[in-house]
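Intended use. Records like the one below are meant for learning the mapping from a protein sequence to its folded structure. Do not use them to infer anything beyond what is encoded.
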Amino acid sequence: MIDGASDIHLDVVIGVGLAAGAWAGAWMVRRQRPRAGETVAFMGALVTLLLVLNGPLHALSDRYLFSAHMVQHLALTLVVAPLLLAGLPGFMVDVLARPGWLTRAFTRPVPALGLYAVVLIGWHLPGPYGLALERHAVHILQHLSLIAASVVAWWPVLSRSAAAPRLDPAPQILYLFAFGFPMTAVAAMITNAERLLYPFYDAAPRLLGLSALADQRLGGVIMWVPAGLVPIIAFTVVFFRWAAEES
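Structure written out for the chain above:
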């Protein structure tokens, strides 16, 4: 039986609380109220962080199942990151990012997607991935860098910054065609591997009747499907919004 109730990480809880307080405080200083959509998006990102980095899912991913860890990574890159950007109004983004040449350079489509690809693929190579499982500090770095790189990758589509704005609708559509490639590459590498890439799980207690290799392939498939679906959904939203504006 998985004891997820006791798998609560104080650093995550404190970090989420500080982020919520800073977001609310920024609106109070500005003497404005956020839009309902901004509140839902930002708080949705924080609630998702609490759910995936604490409790049963975190216990499963840390000690038992590679596939559960991939659900965690999907939530961080495809749910938390876009919701954070959607929940941050332009004035907050410009204060936090302090847009200068560096911010503008890395939030352009090619560097943004390139950085995302390097971080995503790098952390799923056997060496770095195994190190993250063995050392908690490295695991925290893994999650933080995945979120940060994903925010940068979503920037050309969701940014509300005046200094480093999103792309126009037509380039957004082209960008979204390429967005899923890095995760698809990782998923293909994992799913098609003929041997166990992550020995940590070979020594872990087996759950659900899955061998370590079957669990690894399941994790690859879990990554593969959203890697294709999420960009298509985003593409559809952008296209119809663009069509409505043109009409």
